[in-house]
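ASSEMBLY PREDICTION REQUEST
Request ID: AP-0331
Submitted by: J.K., bench scientist
Number of chains: two
Total residues: 672
Priority: normal
Notes: Please return the full assembly, not individual chains.
Input sequences:
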Amino acid sequence: MIASSLPIWVVDVLGSICMIVLAFMCMRLANLLRRRDRNNIVWTYLFWVCTALAVFAVSRSAGHILKQLLIITGDAATWNRVRPYSGAVNTFTFVVVASFTLFFERTWNIYQQITNDKQDLQTAKDKLLYLNQNLENLVSERTAELALSEHKYRRIFEVSRDLILVAGKDGRIVDINPSGSEMLRVEDTEVQSRYLQSFFLEQSEWQSIADAIESKGFVANAEIDLKRSDGRRIRTLLSGSLDRGFPDKEDTIHFLIKDIEQRRLAEEQIAQADKLASIGQLSAGIAHEINNPLGIILGFTQLLIRHEDPQSEKYQDLKTIEKHVRNCKTIVEDLLNFARTSSPDENLIRIDTALDDVLKFIHQHGDHDRIEVVKNYDPEVPQMFLDEKKIKQVFMNLLLNARHAMGNEGRLSLCTEYNPEGRQVIIKIADSGYGIEKRNLSRIFDPFFTTKPTGEGTGLGLSVSYGIIKNHGGDITVDSEVGRGATFTIILPVVSPEKGRHHAEKHTDRR
Amino acid sequence: MKYVIGRMPPVGAIFFLQFTMPLPVLATQGHGGIEGVYAHQMAHLFFIISMGVLIYWLRDRKLVAISGWRFIQYSGLFFILWNVDAYTVHYIEEQLDLLKIARQGPWLLEVRAPEGFGWLSRLYYVAKLDHLLSVPALVFMYLGLKRLLHEDSTAAGKVHP
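STATUS: Completed
Returned structure:
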């Protein structure tokens, strides 16, 4: 094949010139990049690659141009002498350019690492600068926040109405809030040396709580009976959780103890009232059914008695029947009084006068010389709209019970008190007798419940009193401990005469 | 040609003989003939590999998303093509020994090929125009650098591996 060598010559010569020019232009741009950021290793890398390319372009293109010129001028011999050098330099520059190029990945990784480190350093520097400039303010703000937080939680600790207590895992009390000291009736200085379990009524309960906290880390709403330092029992709801604290600090248990004694008492009173209401309904039903046959039996018995000779045996038998029927009617009437079936016949009376009348009656019918009577009547107690007969019956029952509890010797205290805010009169009848056992306290208002020997009491006195007081819109409670006597407290509402009538009617309708 | 100089000669004697009585056996190896061509061809292969590696990393690091680096990638591709072309020409000229090239005048070139290898003559002629590949390679390199220069100075740093 014979062809023109002109295209090859033109492309070779012009291409070589272009390569030299372009290589140096690339080198210039790379240098500009490098000068923009001399610390950027990528730009430095590109500059060295372009420099190597320029060397390569010069060596190769110069060789090619020289070759073409020498061949055109017919001096091929000179070219043959230059050719090995040109080829060797070309080979060398290939290797240099290729070697530089292979370092791209490593260069890029270093650049990334430097960039990241630079950013981290800048961030740290900015943070340090900010902290340096604002350290005082930050410390002040943080201190204020901590003080506020401490104050807040200290106030919660101090003003809480519940017992808040910090104890060691062995129960040793570390800290207790004022309500806790008040609840347990102990001094702050004294409580620090005591163990929480010493206030437990049942020691086994502490062990179960300690075990639960050890295994689960907490105990929630456990009902615990605590014993105050004055010996009185209080029912509580206890929650506690374990605080692992700091590594070098001892673990502690945080307790929150709520006094539920009043709530439990209220619940018991409600339950008692419900029970008595149910018994009252039952009693009323039975009493009504029995009352009529008893009336008929009594009427016919009295008719028969009229025609009998008082000296005859039959007359005595009929009198015995009449006596027992009357007893039965009395019991039935008492039951009806307990059940509040009869409407009160209310008049304006003075409570202290009623009390004195009953006391005088009892004195006249017994030997009470060795019983000391202490009266403490409040002169502010107003006249009250009450059924005098029934109220006196209540006082009679309570005073007779007191006398029975004391025997022939003791101290009887009668006290009245007016509470103008609640418009209530409080009457307290306290004796120094043998008191009421705890197990009987919830039953003393039950009909037919009595601790007296058979034949000495029907067990209806307190039931009737309860019914009468309730019928007047009041309340009657008892507080007693064995050996320390008993105190009956009657609370009666003070109503005006106009309202009194309406009040009585309302209570009658509620039957 | 080898000369054996005794068995287990002392080290001092060897150094003495080497510097005072150089013999052919102790001379460096000769590099005449085809060795130079092989070294040059290996340099072309090395160039191809290095450009291939560059393109791989540019794509792996997602740098080709930036136009400047994308042009540099094209530059690498044209350099690979140019190296293949140059390698082929060198191979035909100096290793294959099939073509007889002679000048028939100042601007005429005769390429003689054996029977059935006419295509090789034409391939050789076209391949001799290698600057048609090397010049675009540098043009793309130039454009790439220009883009990088004019793009946001932090653009390169934004593309993280």
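REVIEWER COMMENTS: The helical segments of chain B are 11-20, 35-60, 67-96, 118-127, 131-150, 155-158.
SIGN-OFF: pending second reviewer
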